[in-house]
């Protein structure tokens, strides 16, 4: 599926993190949300996980200073174990965590990835489509929200939207058509379609003309809500929703170049980027909201109103038939997304590059999220 979920805009470029202040203990937090105990240790889902890679994600987790205090303490007091020993890692999670789930209807599980694109520091005939740095005049997200909240009277929806628009940063269409970010370019890409999907994924690796690779990631947004271009295609009779995969949309753009801007501008949201250091470790993905590198197949974006970042999570697919073999993933909650809302809702990070993108683009299923709470 398309990644319509981007990291929550905190209104500032991430810097040195500070410990999160949580008014409720994790126990009380999860009880208030309706989580109840569930036995996972003896299930087939649990036994079939790749615990070696999961432990790498856990170790990265422990380097964050945004962890809930209970998970921070578990990181600091855990006995040293051999991460290459799957049985030892499995035993660590079984003995140090209790498992809970919300007994509500299943939620939507999708996936995202980090694309690898080609680009240039300078605009050329080949590299013409820019991504932009965060502008200095961008209001904080709190001011953007205040501007929207000021318009809660009984005006008509159309008038209210117009008044809110005056207080918000310009839309995608306004930014592009009026060249509002000229001089603020970070990198120029060779394909405007890939540029748009980079906005949706929120991060990417870019190979420059000299062969050097750089990593770019989320630095803020214009505060506008995301509007699905898949819905635009469906509403205009161009493509039904169930066929609106990333590859199908790219094919449509290639066949309809004169209409692509209308489709792209249907989404008013616009993302700003910053450059991050590249890593020599190929297993390190882009940085998530937790402030640590994501790990392919073991990092998940969640709704912080239901799952605190840093929490281990088991994803189990809902199936209608006992004969089906449901998918399951042992993940760590290390990212968020503006459209990841509600219980049992998650976005699985599948890694970097073409194969990860192909998997992510075809992933959409109903499922349950089981959380691991430190003992």
Your description of this structure?
- A hairpin with a 5-residue loop joins strand 10 and strand 11.
- Residues 1-22 and 156-165 have low confidence and may be disordered.
- Helix 6 (141-149) runs antiparallel to helix 7.
- The chain folds into 2 domains: 26-111 and 282-374, Barwin-like endoglucanases (Beta Barrel); 126-276, Ribosomal Protein L25, Chain P (Beta Barrel).
- The radius of gyration is 21 Å and the shape is globular.
- 29% of the residues lie in helices and 25% in strands.
- It contains 13 helices and 16 strands.
- Strands 3-15-12-14-13-16 form a 6-stranded mixed β-barrel. It has a 6-stranded mixed β-sheet with strand order 5-6-4-7-8-9, with helices on one face. A two-stranded antiparallel ribbon has the order 10-11.
- It is an alpha+beta fold and 375 residues long.
